[in-house]
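User: My collaborator and I are trying to settle a disagreement about how two of our proteins should look. Neither of us wants to argue from intuition anymore, so we agreed to look at predicted structures for both before our next call. Could you fold the first one, then the second, and keep them clearly separated?

Assistant: That sounds like a sensible way to settle it. I'll keep them separate. The first protein:
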Amino acid sequence: MPQEDILQVKRDKLKALQDMGQDPFRIVKYDVTNHSEELKANFEEFEGKDVSVAGRMMFKRVMGKASFCNIMDLQGKIQIYAARDSLGEESYTSFKKMYDVGDILGVKGKVFRTKAGEISVHAEEITLLSKALLPLPEKFHGLTDTDTRYRERYVDLIMNENVKETFIKRSKIISSIRRYLDDRGFMEVETPMLVENAGGAAARPFTTHYNALDEDRKLRISLELYLKRLIIGGMERVYEIGRVFRNEGLDTKHNPEFTLMELYQAYTDYHGMMDLTEDMYRYLAETVCGSAVITYGDLEIDLSKPFRRLTMVDAIKEITGIDFDQIKTEEEAKAIAKEKGVEFEKHHKRGDIVNLFFDEFCEDKMIQPTFIMDHPIEISPLTKKKPDDPGKVERFELYINGWEMCNAYSELNDPIDQRERFAAQDALAAAGDEEANHTDEDFLHAMEIGMPPTGGIGYGIDRLVMLLTNSASIKEVIAFPTLKSLS
């Protein structure tokens, strides 16, 4: 049947139901007592008992005086046995002729097992709760085009059960993070999204205009500087899970708006952050996946063992044989970069070259959990220097499956040093670096009030969900990812 005819038939059925006083859109609530998997997992408890279930009809087989369908709810699917003798002539006729796959039904009846052994609900009452006016994709091919899946996530969730499982698991991951941190004395807080100065990360911000103030604002690229203000205010252990916005490209691991969690703990350092991170990742894997040894694609990733700890310079030396501790000047660093084919920009310093070498030769080889420590000062404007090596800072990134999973510091709490670092960033911005930080006078004022020694860390929640759900793209774990407009 042509598509336009199918749509008209659905509307005709709705009109007929409304004329009979059975308008589904006038129903405002339906009391659900149980869900599908609950009934199937506890059949002995529910056998012969009255239940009320609701969900979307995904299959329908009409026979003479009895028919079958199944409905899908949050937990899964359950079969419904619809018989004329139990429903009555009028209700059974409506079910057979007026209700379609895709419609949302409420069913009251008794739980039983069919002769074929399938746990089902013997319907005593079926209520049409919503009439679907568009058809679902054809069941044998489903919804497989990725662009359509992301644009019509609601259909994707209906047709692909694994997609729903991913987002249920995402919710469980985030609630488990909250529980883990709350149990360790951290306080969840909220900070501004529209800011005068988008700092705390190397990224180009989005800009907008605040009409009431007649001022431009930026969308935050990080949570860092406001959370540190709370540490200065004496809150000691704080975290925030929220959206941040970076005006950058899109690929399988990046989305311009994404979920970031940052936490800050007074009176600890980056070693304390490593310990917390390792313990939390192990806890999340065990809680959400059932084991600290997880599978991603063809890889087995072991989160149960102590995570490896390796300096950035040692990682580069281990893989390339180049020891940047012996390369002291910017000129030497750029010369070795040219020799090895590592592209760099004119404004890059020695530390930038070190970081580029790691990105080029090392990052994708960090499959098992590895903390990469002691980054160059040039790429870490908010981090404490190492006391015994002021060209490096007390910073680490965690790598798993070749991905950067988090970024952590022993936080800089010297306002004089911080002003000098900001000045260096301002110079980079003046030279055309759109990702450079800018001096934040209000933050410097806060630091001058006095900030305790602090460990801080930022986690990409979407990438963590990718890892724990075995998802190949960030678009698979963001319900509504950024897509180019069709118009």
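The second protein, kept apart from the first:
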Amino acid sequence: MIAFIAKRFSAAIFVLTSISILVFLIFFATPGVDPAARIAGRNASQETLAQVRATFDLDKPLPERYLSMMDHLFIQRDLTSYVNRGEEVWPQLIQAVPATLSLVIGASIIWLLLGIGLGVTAAGMRKSWIDPAIGVVGIIGVSLPVYWLGEVVNLITQGRLHDTAFRWVPPLGYVPLTENPGQWFLSLLFPWLTLSLLYAGIYIRVIRGEIVGLMQEDFVKTERAKGASEKRILLKHSSRMSLITVVSLFGLDFGALVGGSALLTEVVFGIQGVGRLTFTALQNFDLPLIMATVMYAAFFIVIANAVVDVLYAWLDPRVRRG
């Protein structure tokens, strides 16, 4: 198992290094892309362009520029923005991470509880009206766009009914947990519910399908022949086996959302998270900030995949021999 873990995390380091090189080449070595021209502004003279290239090390060979950027980004941590002169990248990223983590962790707890609970219930009650009813709930959750649902929630809680039923809902934005735990919870309650509804719908359908499929397997038929009840088979065997799929799915979803895929939720609810920071950096073509946010996103996605592989191997020993 230790060898398997070392192999997976070594591969993760290789992937992260490859991503950093690829992203650097896209923004700094693509023909027609001149970062110095973007920094200097329109109609800049050749003397100004030369001065900008010298200031930001853009006149050096690509390998040297790449190593210099990685050094300033990960070792010295003093990489500065090309747009906001003198403003360092790391403080901006560190300031945005808690908001995104708070949003994603809270939403993931809700969608796991709903997804697993309703998915198991639907599989166990598949011969009654409860199964199709839960299926409709899952379809509704998958079908509603996050940005539309968020705008509807804001229209109700921040607009028409704010002065009556929703006075307790704070204005849009993020309140740090360390500043005011109560306001932190209230400011994230509806973003949590909005983001979790989509994923809960997906997990309900996946878990229900997995359990129904497992209930037809030979080992389940053997348990029935031994006299095990349907409830015991459902909870002890089928549900536990379906966790392998849940672990894989959750690891990928969580890593992507923490990496910035919660952008739409952050924008709709005014949360200054990593997704919104990345979007702003792309709009301004702020290459150091883009590099930092992309590497941050890649780190969480790659590490999440590595952790999922390890958990998968722990749940199913056959994977270690692959």
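Some points you might bring to the call about the second protein. The CA atoms of residues 2 and 54 lie 48 Å apart. The chain has a mean pLDDT of 83.
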